[in-house]
Amino acid sequence: MSTETITLERPGTGAPAFRAGVHAMRTAICDGRPLVLMGLTHLLTTQSPCEVVFTSADSFPGPGAGIDVLLVEDTLAQAVPAGPAWCGSAPEVVVVRAEATPDQVLRQVCEAVDRRTPVPGAGRSAPGLSPREQQVLRFIASGMTHGQVARRIGISPHTVDTYVKRVRSKFGIGNKAELTRVALGLHPL
To answer: Residue 186: what pLDDT?
Structure first.
């Protein structure tokens, strides 16, 4: 049986956005099973922030390929080149087990993308946020609804909306996941 290496370049905009603010992650998939390669490629290009630019049944992408995320079957995981071999930033490696479900693979990929994606407001403390904005942000990040936050601190839900809009504006973020990431950098309640 012969194997071949395929390099894919997607025209246009790349992979669909998985969530706001996440740019397409250059992804390589290395798996000795051709049908698995095809399935993983389809899964990632349609349901994740990944742009699959390299697939292979028998080799890894070369140094300087600019790979952000590398999916590799569990039997090949030991052969993944060490960090210095990547000539710069080594990719996040996701080991795909034979029995993994698509949801499990997507969860692992999302975690790898999260580790690779800079956190909006990372390294910033809370300067620029009022104490009330910080308080509202922490409650939202803990999973409370705007109505629950309003009842908890004795303000109207519209005021909570205003605080959330201000925080989003100050940090240039657009969704609750990003709000949570900013809140993780704040001091506990």
So the answer is: 62
Three-state SS sequence of the chain: CCCCEEECCCCCCCCCCCCCCCCCEEEEEECCCHHHHHHHHHHHHHHCCEEEEEEECCCCCCCCCCCCEEEEEHHHHHHCCCHHHHCCCCCEEEEECCCCCHHHHHHHHHHHHHHHCCCCCCCCCCCCCCHHHHHHHHHHHCCCCHHHHHHHHCCCHHHHHHHHHHHHHHHCCCCHHHHHHHHHCCCCC
Mean pLDDT of 87-110: 85
pLDDT in tens, 2-17: 444 444 433 333 333 3
* pLDDT of the residue at 17: 36
Indicate the residue type of 119.
V
Q: Which token pair is 126?
A: 């809370």
And the tokens for 173? 């973020």
What is d(CA 52, CA 68) in angstroms, rounded to the nearest whole number?
A: 10
Distance from C-alpha of 92 to C-alpha of 150, rounded to nearest angstrom: 40
Q: Quick: pLDDT tens for 145-167.
A: 889 888 888 889 999 999 988 88
